[in-house]
Design goal:
alpha/beta; Rossmann fold; six-stranded mixed sheet; four-stranded antiparallel sheet; 10 strands
């Protein structure tokens, strides 16, 4: 019978794995800086973008990022996340560009079918407007392949045509970490340096590197409603409907986005180490477990990505 691995050996194996992922991410970030004239890093203040920003610090040095940070704000984001976004950008001395879906609504380029409609899918319009405004030729995003089946199809360097659209059947091969970054005028790339990370990898890296996060990622008490198998946070944007019972639960968010479609999970995990242990036992992806807008086929991720979404 084989002897069980010692905790020290398990830690060494985990660190080698994280080192390899970190090295790959740093390599990709440096490739972007070398290959493109006007890249930007999509930065929301969420855990994945904060991990990517930590790798960017290691790649280029604090205060020396060769690209600005860009956020597309729905106007319905959690205040705690926005505050942490601003704090990190200021600490790094990074340029932060914010463009709002509400501005697109004022211009008439975004029209909601009803006032309570989630604005998350409409971020694509505002993002494409920002790309045209600043002439970005590469946008660095924190999407991971384990999040959702459409994202699992996507290359690390994902080409977008002159309309900002993604063509799944026309992706470029990425053999031996050689990336074809050639683009025609008006085209751009979406680059995903942490594509090969998993949710568990992200939390192990957060624990190892002591990456700061908005407090919403850790266990806290919050008023919620049970709706469609999810815990909907009670807020002015998501009030209880007739017959729904408001409960106070100990919850945390696995992912953060538009308040109208992002739900917490019941959890007592209050530290990265506790979340690592909790993540080992989950069987549903973070988007599948917490995003109301991913529950319908009309709002499928693949359809939205073809239209220019992240």
């Amino acid at each position: 019978m084989n002897a069980p691995l010692s905790p020290d050996l398990l830690t060494a194996v985990s660190n080698r794995h994280l080192d390899a992922l970190e090295e790959e991410t740093i390599f990709i970030l440096r490739e972007v800086a070398a290959a493109f004239e006007r890249p930007a890093l999509l930065f929301s203040g969420g855990k994945d973008s904060l991990v990517m920003l930590k790798c960017a610090e290691k790649a280029f040095g604090a205060g020396r990022l060769p690209f600005p940070l860009l956020m597309i704000d729905t106007g319905h984001n959690f205040p705690e996340m926005l505050a942490y976004r601003d704090q990190r950008a200021q600490e790094l001395g990074a340029e932060l560009i914010v463009r709002s879906v509400e501005d697109s609504m004022a211009r008439g380029t975004v029209r909601l079918s009803h006032p309570d409609e989630p604005r998350n899918p409409h971020q694509a319009v505002t993002l494409l407007e920002a790309i045209e405004e600043f002439r970005f030729d590469a946008l660095i995003g924190g999407a991971r392949r384990d999040e959702e089946k459409a994202r699992a199809k996507e290359r690390i360097f994902s080409h977008r045509d002159s309309f900002g659209q993604w063509q799944p059947k026309a992706q470029r091969p990425e053999l031996w970490t050689l990336f074809n970054t050639r683009i025609a005028p008006g085209e751009h790339f979406r680059v995903f340096p942490i594509s090969n990370w998993t949710e568990l990898d992200v939390w192990q890296y957060i624990a190892r590197e002591n990456v700061g996060l908005p407090p919403l990622y850790y266990a806290h008490q919050r008023q919620v409603i049970e709706r469609r198998g999810l815990l909907v946070p009670v807020s002015p944007l998501t009030p209880p409907k007739d017959g729904e019972q408001v409960q106070t639960r100990t919850v945390r968010f696995r992912t953060l986005g538009d308040i109208t479609c992002t739900c917490p999970v019941e959890s007592s995990a209050a530290t990265p180490a506790e979340i690592v242990l909790e993540t080992l036992s989950v069987q549903v992806s973070e988007r599948g477990a917490t995003r109301m807008d991913d529950k319908t086929s009309d709002a499928s991720m693949e359809k939205r990505k073809k239209e220019g979404y992240f």
